[in-house]
Amino acid sequence: MSRLLRIDTSKQTYSFDPMGAYEGLGGRALSSRLVSREVPPTCHPLGAKNKLVLATGMVTGRPAGSSGRLSVGAKSPLTGGIKESNVGGSFAQRLARLDLMGVVLEGKPEAGSAPVTIIIGKNDVTFEDASDLRYLGTYETVKRLMAKHGEKASVLCVGPAGDTCRQNASIQVADPNGRPARAAGRGGMGAVMGSKGVKAVVIVESGSSPAIADKDAFKAAAKRWVEIIKGHPVTAEALPNLGTAVLVNILNEAGGLPTKNFRSGRFDNAGDISGEKIAELIKARGGEVKEGCHAGCIIQCSQAFHDKEGKYLTSGFEYETVWGFGSNILVKDIDDIAMLDRLCDDLGLDTIETANAMAMAMEAGLVAWGDGKGAIELLKSVYDPKSPMGRIIGGGTNYVAQAYGIDRVPVVKNQAMPAYDPRAVKGVGITYATTPMGADHTAGYSVAQNILGVGGNVNPLTKDGQVELSKALQIATAAIDASGFCLFVAFAVLDTPDGVECMSNMIQAAYGKPFTADDFINLGKSILKDEFAFNAAAGFTAAHDQLPEFMSETLPPHNVTWDFTTEEMQAVKAV
Amino acid sequence: MPITVNCFATLAQYSPPGGQMDIAPGMTTGKLVDLLGIPRDGVKILFVNGLRVDLDAPLKDGDRVGMFPAVAGG
Fold first, then answer.
1. What is the DSSP-derived secondary structure letter of residue A291?
2. Is residue A474 part of a domain?
């Protein structure tokens, strides 16, 4: 039977509870439902009333390809709204193998308490003093915890940024190689974990595969699933061979690659930071061109990037990060960008938010535009808990902008914009403006239809059809985030008539209850309703659904502006 | 007439030297794909001056052409 593990961090007590009102929910459906029902929308995100939910997907842990995702939810200290940050790594599957749909961290220890590592066993929880791990980077933290608890231990943890509750702190999840390169990055979930005095959560028990009600039906659907994913050129070839940074060149050609803090849609040195270039370097230096972030991934978009000496430096080196520390701040040296990625993972910081914070530091003249080495040195200040500069950088984009009086601030609901200029990719601009998450591309990835010709075609430069597109994608994405499947399956699913049906069939077979493609879409809608309702109760209105003021400036090369009013976009929220 | 042509990802091998080409006036994007020896169904996304076009778009002096196979990420 599926269970929910509740941990009171103030008393260091726990209980393994039946799912109760949350029966049948997983992933984002569970995290957003629980937060919307149990967390007061106006509470302080770092206070005792906030709850941090680690929720495994509905089919996670079962033999269904690319289904190992974890949904991390809470009220966000960055946006002040509800947050769901979705992440790979081994942790979600290991939770599922203990029949746990979720772990809820509640309460808050007294000020001055020692941080703890929480060890989850099959039917028990232990709390270890983590004083020796405080302010330690995530790589060393995971190394020490695995040395102590064994090679099979699955770990998620915060770095120095989370230890000190900085509002851009991530939670880093170890991959099958024990590398904490997978981030629940967005929205400061690491600060919430840090506020509860938790340095790391470790699963030692390997458990067993969760129940499947109809094994034959599951097997048949899972087989069709492999055909769908392996039969699409994006999921079968482009992502495994060139990684996500394959997008650098195409966004640059389309004139939508944000450059120098969203001043242009083209970067002269795009080729130097492209997925093609990265793959070439990885091969030459003996790294891994393709890797799964969790066992059983049938896409394998991750990689292991080695430095000039051929030593492992980082993985999960994604397009967003490459853009953020690349064209966004005019850095063309891919080794500098890779080091900035490694530092973010080790410090426990979201790369998108940190890269935009760095752009603010460059606007302020703290570091020169294009100075990768200077950016590296500035970022290292986050390691020092006593460094005021480190505190400012770790606070995120708007925090830096406010400290230095910068008004060109690329945020929506205080969260930084990702790697697609919304003036030249208008569909994703609708998503940035309207998703309950703050600026977030994954919440409704209209880039697929605007630029990539996946799932149809919608002109990126005009307003026609963008609101409807973003709405449909936000609904489908919420459901995928609940299922436990990686969002990248959507590239194949959108182009396959029975794609949603196949995912629904796996859910139906796992739980032994009818679950149709319509149910899948309705699940997505119910999640968005929970999230919109939470934000409304937290004080968000239509006025918050807008892009920053400077988006009215023209963007070369297409000389386009952002021309949607908040009223025009409200239809997205009528789910 | 001179144009700039860049082929990306798995099509990179078809890029002309230095990305520069001289073509007959009025040539279409489809004919250009043929001229470069790329199977037509291998080109998923075609840009001319940053705008998506099909294989029947006529090319002009100084155009910037970008060709891609199916790619995605995010």
1. E
2. yes
